[in-house]
# Entry
Amino acid sequence: MDDYRAMFRRNLIGQLIEALADTPAVLVNGARQTGKSTLVQSKEVVKDGRHYITFDDPGVLAAARSDPNGFLAGLPLPVTLDEIQHVPELFPVVKAAIDRRRHPGQFLLTGSANVMLLPKISESLAGRMEILTLWPFSQGEMKNHQESFVDSLFSPKPVNWSGKFQKLEGEALLEHLVAGGYPPAVARHSPSRRDAWFHSYIMTMLQRDIRDLANIADSTAIPRLLSVVATRAGSLLNFADLSRTMGLPQTTLKRYFALLEGTFLVQLLRPWTRNLGKRVIQTPKVYLNDSGLLAYSLGATVDRLKAEGPLTGAVLENFVMMELRKQCAWSTARPEMFFWRTTSGAEVDFVLEDRAGKVVGLEVKASATLGSQDARGLRELADTVGKNWLRGVVLYAGREVIPFASNLHGIPMTALWA
# Structure
């Protein structure tokens, strides 16, 4: 295991152990190099004597593909099957094994591709498998701390929203953005070495996972598409525009985009709507799974971010979106995440809705000061939501908590991981 990844306790570990205690199969999926193998081999997971198999081993992969039934029958249980997307033939065999002996924690699976996008696999393991997604390091994980910001948003009275927070002085916030959270990238403190890692990472994704999932005639198409999508991060997904820019038919483009989404490199954020009487934009927004990957794809260094305000805003919005998404995975509230935009121009960057239907809105501002106009979109969203509105937050680069109203505050960016 990579020593750097093993230094930090992943905040998803609690959900993983709980799932193994009452579910026959658990799938930990996510992009390559996020630390899935390290997580499933951690002491807290393997204490039950769990056997470990990885399909990154060519010999093991060949044996599993040639005789899936015989391969699985020869394995001791409980077992961890790492990178199982390489052997989709094993899923019906796993299903059959679970149906014969339904015992919690028999199978711990990992995958660097979203295998649940394949209908047959999704159907075969319905009700038998819990799915957890491991993202790159959160800011709290890199400080060995489990963040509770998302849960505080849904608290009756957030007790930690008082006084002053640490301010990210000067270039510190920009350094957070360009570093991102991929463990091997964070471990490289030199920007040039970090860029070299991201370059190799994208090429490896093309040559391994994406090639495994589909036959791509043009080997440059996927990296080019990722670069183009990066320039649209935080914007509405427009396939017609992407098609013109790339010079590809929309049918081909959508297939390539699905591969980026299926390997977790690209994330979609759906629009929130409740009042059907108001016209709401229905197209999703698109983001990358890591601000460091986004910054690399845009050529956005710290110096360039300092010089270009709009570029900083886009990378910061992507950064916050992924920090919230990571926290949602281990929060008690477990909210779903959306954005809100109307055809009249009202907009809120992020909308979180919990299982009780309570709604929280969040805006992201790169500035160190705020004015009342910065909360305008949140006020309009509150009027639309009505009685289920809980509160609104404007995250910004200052250090003071600014009360705009009883349920509307400006909150320092560092509160995300305080």
